[in-house]
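Incident review: delayed structure delivery

Summary: a single-chain prediction request sat in the queue longer than the usual turnaround. Root cause was a stuck worker, restarted by the on-call engineer. No data loss occurred. The affected request and its eventual output are reproduced below so the record is complete for anyone auditing the incident later.

Affected input:
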Amino acid sequence: MRYSISKRNKSHGSDVWYGGEFNPQTGKTKWKSLYTNKKSEAVSWRDKMNASRFLPPEPKIPIVSLEDAVEAFLLDVENVRKCVAGTVELYSHYLRQFKTFCNRNEITNVHEITQALCAGFAQESFAKLSAQTTKNRVILFRHFFSWAFEHYDISGKNPFKKIVVIKPKPVPRNFWTLEECEKIIAAEPNAECKCWFALMAFAGLRREEARHLKMENFSAGKISLIGKGKKAATLPISTRLQTHLDKYLAIRGPEPGALFPWLSNLVKAKEFLIKNAVENSGIKNSGIAHFHRFRHSFASNLLRMGRSIKAVQILMRHESVTLTLNTYGHLLPNDLEQAAEM
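Output delivered after worker restart:
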């Protein structure tokens, strides 16, 4: 192919330049408007097109289905990186969600996935998640695309590299006062459940952390455990909590082993246990009853009693004070107003 330029319709008063593509096989030139009346722009087009004849051909983009890439990635995670089975299952779950989203948008191949598509998926799927969970998901997808681009030799930028999820304004956490927590515990007839509730309400333990405690976790007025993210923690036992422990241990006995034999053998903690206790407690406007509300109540009650935000962060085992403030900061304005009085 050879390229040239000409003003094809000058006799009709047109000042527009045309570009011609000469095909030596047919001996004909195909003309198209360059949409400019400037010769310099037309010359630039001609020179660029003629120079392109001597450039190597454009590399073909590998056609890799998203389905195949996901399956290969999961095999790599499981067999090469030797991640635990639970991690592979989670990765598989999240990547299936992404595949479903892509299918809805008629995208089936990896090279067709754009940053705009990933941003839409993130906003739809991550908006209601916590900041830490969102961060972990974004890291997973960045990792997947980095692996896919390198493994299949696909050029371009990682479409998850600059994903930002706009979070809705957090809703203030509801909590139970100390008195309400005590009423809920008193309304529960089962001795194991009473103590279980107390560990969540007065030590801030998560549901499963408390349910699977053993007698060996208690020593010298402290609770030692492996919590979320497999992080070790040692927490003090308050006088209020010790009272509930003493009552329960007087029934259970001091033998080693599971603190709650019946509860620890449940396949899953039953939500109706807390709902029934709250309903029987007679608390008005008690709100939604769920186990994690005991943990929120623990932090909220500490702040209401004037404990420092740093102390609450440590007892709640949050990664940073910022997380504690973002979750429970709505409880502080009245305290700050009082503190400002001199």
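Verification: The two ends are 87 Å apart (CA to CA).
Action items: add queue-age alerting; document worker restart procedure.
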